[in-house]
Amino acid sequence: MNKIINILKEQKSIPIDQFINIALYDKKFGYYMKKNPFGKKGDFITSPLISNLFGEMIAIWCIAFWEHLEKPKKFLLVELGPGDGTLCKDLLNTFKKFKHFYSCLEIKLLEKSNKFRKIQKTKIKNIKVKWIKKINELNYGPIIFLGNEFFDSLAIKQIYNKKGSFFERYVTLSKNKKIKFLYKKAKKNLIKNIKNLNLINKGSIIEYPIEAIDYLEIIAKKIKRYNGGLLTLDYGYMQSKNQDTLQSVKNHQYLNILSQPGNSDITSHINYKLFFEILKKNNLEIEKLATQSEFLQRLGIIERANILSKKISFKAKADMFYRLKKLLHSEEMGSLFKVLFAKTKNTKFSLGF
Ligand SMILES: C[S@@+](CC[C@H](N)C(=O)[O-])C[C@H]1O[C@@H](n2cnc3c(N)ncnc32)[C@H](O)[C@@H]1O
After folding, report:
1. Within a domain: 353
2. Pocket of ligand 1, candidates 150, 215, 267: which has the most ligand atoms within 8 Å of its Cβ, to mutate?
3. Does the Cβ of 115 fall within 6 Å of ligand 1?
4. What helix, strand, coil percent values describe the chain, rounded to 5?
5. Which of 124, 133, 209, 247, by CA, is between 20 and 30 Å from 94?
6. Residue 200 — pLDDT band, cuts 50, 70, 90?
7. Quick one: pLDDT band at residue 1, thresholds 50, 70, 90?
8. Residue 190: phi, psi to the nearest 5?
9. CATH number of the domain residue 212 falls in
10. From CA 35, how far away is CA 42, in angstroms rounded?
11. 218 in any annotated domain
């Protein structure tokens, strides 16, 4: 907290995307740089940590996609923001059972947080797995880009539309040194960008996912050049709506994003309509969004659980189906989470969609 207050004392105000980046990634103070927030005892839980069947289904999807691409001898899987490494570990457990696929596979992990990179390196000890600092480094393919809750953790800008005048949201200090929002006239370039992206609709808060757009453009270029696809799972919406989706979570409870920067997670919802437009502009084709529940069920998660349940105790079986419900039920993560798949125009693969 002191760090942000000191920065604000010095700079008076900073745009909200910069605030998010400091709150999450400042070397000493950043939330993702100092603790492992995942799991029951942490602040939130993600799908890979709920059940290893999640990773198993995604592994099967990757293998089927590789087969569709006619089993290329060299094949790259890039995980975006691997968190505590659980998904990658579960993927490898399944991949190893498919010898031919496994012999063609290489994995690269893109991770911004030093803390998470360390956790990943202790969990995943496999010569096929390498860490990269920049997505630009990738220079062969085909590539599958895979991200679970990656895009919703990237910093965004917010712009307030007051009857056609635009004001960017900043944070500043109040007289009693509390962090508060401040609105400053938006710069011309920013207004031009949000107009070009068709972000001006009804509703007063415009969210501009400035970092996600950069990633989508680079990823699209890599897929065009080397073939492959992008598979992401995040929470988000498809309809045009301009609203404030920034949220903060600590101890599995929502709180104001300004109340505990550095000690709470900050995320936003994905504007899928915008993501589709950007990917299409970059000549990719996108499958109709599937919910997490639809996607996992089309891959056979329930059938797989039924097979496994024959070999385990009643207690283990109850636990497995309890976890499955968390992943699939519409009141849990089943409908809120959406699955996006983008690929080149001549790729006819659509498993799970
Ligand atoms: C919400 S966590 C999700 C972790 C994991 N995928 C899971 O589902 O459990 C977001 C992850 O993305 C990473 N991340 C966020 N921004 C990043 C960036 N610009 N480059 C690389 N990694 C980033 C975070 O450090 C973290 O590992």
Report:
1. no
2. 150
3. no
4. 40, 25, 35
5. 133
6. confident
7. low
8. -65, -45
9. 3.40.50.12710
10. 9
11. yes
d(C-alpha 23, C-alpha 14), whole Å: 12
Task: Specify if 350 maps to a domain.
Answer: no
334 Cα to the center of ligand 1, angstroms: 21
Residue 20 and residue 247: Cα distance in Å, rounded? 11
- Does residue 82 have its Cβ closer than 6 Å to ligand 1? yes
In the predicted model, what is the mean pLDDT of the chain?
94
Q: How many domains in the chain?
A: 1
What is the average pLDDT across 115-141?
A: 95
Task: For residue 34, give Cα distances in angstroms to 23, 31, 39.
Answer: 11, 6, 16
Whether this model's pTM surpasses 0.85: yes
Report the nearest-CA residue for atom 2 of ligand 1.
83
Tokens at 124, concatenated? 């995943």
Residue 38 vs residue 337, higher pLDDT = 337
Strand-pair partners of 162: 165
Note the pLDDT tens digit of each residue in 288-297. Answer: 999 999 999 9
Picking from 116, 66, 73, 118, the residue whose alpha carbon sits closest to that of residue 95 is: 66
Q: Does 64 reside within a domain? A: yes
Distance 300 CA to ligand 1 centre (A): 27
* Unique residue bearing structure tokens 């069920």: 297
Is 285 or 253 the better-scoring residue by pLDDT? 285
